[in-house]
Amino acid sequence: MRILFHAPGLAAFRPNIDLPHLLGVPATTTDTLNGLRATHQLTGNRGNIIHAEAPSKIFYKAPNLSAFGNLAVLQKTLGDSFRIRMAAQFDIIIISMANFIRPTHDGATLAAALDALDGAIKFIVLGAGLQGTHKLRDMMPGNRNLLAIMNEQAAVFGVRGDDTAEWLADNGFGNTSVLGCPSLYSYPQSILAIDGAAARAKGANADVMTAGHLALHKNKLSIRGSALVKALKGVNASYVMQDEFLTYGDLADTPFLYHEGSNTCQPAPVNSFLSGRGKTPVNFRRYYYFTEAGAWRQGAMRHDVFVGDRFHGGVAAMQAGVPAVFLKQDNRVSELTRFFDLPNLTITDFNKKGLAATLDEHLSHDALERMKTTYRTRHAAFSSAMAAHGLAVKTRIGATDTSNRPFTPAKITGPDTSNLAEGEQPAFTELDNYIIHVNRPPDTREVVITFEAADWTIDRKNPLRRGFGEKFLIENGYAVISVLTKTVNWYRAPGLLSFFEHPQFRKFLASFDRIHSYGSSMGGYGACAFADLLGCHNVVALQPVSSLATDLVSWESRFAHGAKLDWTGAYRDAATGITTPHAVYALYDPDWQDARHTDRLAETAGARLRRVPVPKAEHAVPRYLQRHKLLKDVSLMCLRGTDHGHIASQIVKRVGGR
Length: 658
Prior knowledge:
By secondary structure, this protein is an alpha/beta fold. It has 3 domains: 3-180, no CATH class; 188-362, Rossmann fold; 402-655, 3-Layer(aba) Sandwich (Rossmann fold). The chain contains 26 helices and 24 strands. The strands form 4 sheets. It has an 8-stranded mixed sheet. Strands 17-18-20-19-21-22-23-24 form an 8-stranded mixed sheet, with helices on both faces. Helix 3 crosses helix 5 (108-117) and helix 10 (223-231) packs across helix 15 (347-362). The longest helix is centred in the middle third of the chain and has 23 residues, at 365-387. The chain is globular, with a radius of gyration of 27 Å.
């Protein structure tokens, strides 16, 4: 595969010489911080080299036929021949982005280059992210145009998290896939080998690497920088600069302040300079500035842990197998740590806990295993999304990691169990018509099998999307098996039954004390229809639909598309699938057609059917309960077997006359 990587992945000057086969050169050695300006401008914020080099590390490629390059510069240089020559030289373009969705970024030149390609070559966007909370009208016209082109023309418009995807969808850019940041996929073995034991053992004496925002504003240390200094007061910490030195005035011209061989600054002058511009004395043990990613990873290995609020500073540490705790001070860090389940807390909470307690909690065995479980799912789904466009991910999760298998893009009729111990289950399985996510945090004894709804707002092209209720169920102590549909198929498409009946999956289910099912509308049908087969104890069906077979529910007229599916054969009637559960909770609007479906379920379940009326909800029970901040509480009460009369009274009490 001949790949052009549009990203500032290398801090090397490009020769402006009209000869082939020449390589760029690094900057001449400097001993001042200002001497770094020229090489800094090659990549901008040094965190860029962590995410920008990642795609070139991740994918199989023809190394002598692939290159880093700037599309805007190439278009300017090649002129009218740009489109033809790019298509002749490369098979695909991979664009690694970061937090470019912000008012200060102008994407006009990149937009013009992509527009000039006019579909001649496929391009993929990775890592696109939103910085802050802004209106689309706040963006520069060039950036708005860039978003439109990426949304319309990219083979994959990969964004880093759900917040960015939702903002883009709200503004008319709905063709996104939530894939996280590519920098997390460069070194999976390092991430899966992370162990917090050494850092926890050292506690308050741990050697910490940090990064943040020690920039000056009007000759005063920034608010975020001051907060980090206060949080790490008394901690044995080294600080990694990314672009702060650009604000340091005359200090940056001090001879011999910087030693390029070790990528370090003399700490005493920098500490004194910053202490005089803030309220808290600054006393970092070391200061680093890295000109390439490998040195950054090696520097991280001198430390026990990263604790800071620069996301790619933490990723650099994780790439070297060093644990990281992220201090989330903005939406960028919050979105990515949430997506990957990375250890995180606010700087306020860190101040309250202190270093030792933070490490004990966030680097515990359970916390890191939860992170690794999520990571395996994200890595597998990322690999699948790329395979669909001919890109093979080189950075695999190895066979020696017996807790999971690397995902294979080939379609399968059951879980790939060729390298699993008995009773284990892959974190990600793709069937012809379904995707199955399995998330089992350590020591969980109950599992909830969730079925997603027919909601047309669900991005069914995104294999990384969370299942129905997945996040809050995990947070409340349940393992979760999420059943996702590739189309609105009402669980009538083939493949799912074979998966549920597969011996390996049956053994996996048998390892739990209790099994429950959970879904809404179409998902409510699935939760009921397969409840007996799955051995469910409690079934929670919001606005359940019992069937769309016209001979069974001739009065149902709302789901024309679903009614056209094949409703013959097994599991056509959810009412016949609930003969064994201990309880079936049906939450529905009694004045809506869902009440008739509930009556059908009652014919089978009898007293085991627990009716929970939700007046005025219509066929939007989840949204209605969510609006009144009831969805999580009500769902948990059902799963825990709470009396349905009590649940109904709680809804009335909370909603009242609203």
